[in-house]
User: Which sequence fits this backbone?
């Protein structure tokens, strides 16, 4: 049955307008974005099948074009729309932290870094470069792959900090497994980066580890 024939209070768009987005399931929110379903399936059915096939929102946002389009009922147009939505959400959160003292906005920082990294299928190491008032200059994804001494190069981080005239940095990387417990490798590379940046008077304020449902702060744990 098409959504237009559902009781009005059950239709995703009307439900959102009357009760707010928090009242909708992931599939219902995605259905509003899709707008239409396919033969024999409503937009909600299609959204539910897509989430089941790709493993939830993390799989949805982390899959590539080939993996997305392999699901029956969706194609390149919907993939492009989804990437646009993801990019807009990242840019919104980036605007939220620009111009702020990040030491007084820890939750905004966490939200931005999580949105940027949590969906990645492989480990990505990012760095937020800050000025002397701890305002954001730029956030960049610098390295990909297993985060260890072989893949993260302190001299490249130092070079970029000097180019941007940064006074401080915040590091972040994701654990695709979802576990946010810092590994010994995480602690070693953090110390190497901290030592290298200290030589050019750039402070390391924190290193966040992004997991499925939580974010760990090395600073809060006393590991910096």
Assistant:
């Amino acid at each position: 049955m098409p959504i237009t024939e559902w009781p009005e209070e059950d239709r995703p768009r009307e439900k959102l307008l009357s009760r707010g987005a928090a009242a909708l399931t992931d599939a219902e929110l995605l259905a509003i974005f899709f707008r239409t379903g396919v033969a024999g399936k409503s937009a909600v059915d299609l959204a539910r099948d897509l989430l089941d096939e790709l493993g939830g929102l993390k799989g949805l946002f982390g899959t590539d074009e080939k993996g997305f389009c392999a699901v029956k009922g969706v194609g390149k147009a919907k993939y492009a729309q989804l990437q646009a939505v993801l990019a807009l959400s990242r840019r919104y959160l980036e605007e939220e932290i620009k111009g702020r003292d990040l030491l007084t906005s820890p939750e905004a920082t966490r939200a931005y870094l999580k949105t940027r990294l949590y969906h990645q299928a492989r480990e990505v190491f990012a760095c937020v470069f800050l000025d002397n008032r701890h305002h954001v200059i730029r956030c960049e994804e610098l390295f990909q792959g297993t985060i260890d001494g072989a893949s993260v190069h302190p001299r490249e981080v130092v070079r970029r900090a000097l180019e941007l005239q940064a006074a401080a940095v915040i590091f972040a990387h994701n654990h695709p497994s979802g576990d946010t417990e810092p590994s010994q490798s995480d602690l070693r590379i953090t110390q190497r980066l901290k030592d290298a940046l200290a030589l050019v008077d750039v402070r390391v304020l924190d290193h966040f580890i992004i997991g499925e449902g939580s974010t760990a702060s090395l600073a809060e744990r006393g590991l910096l």
Observations:
- The chain has nine helices and five strands.
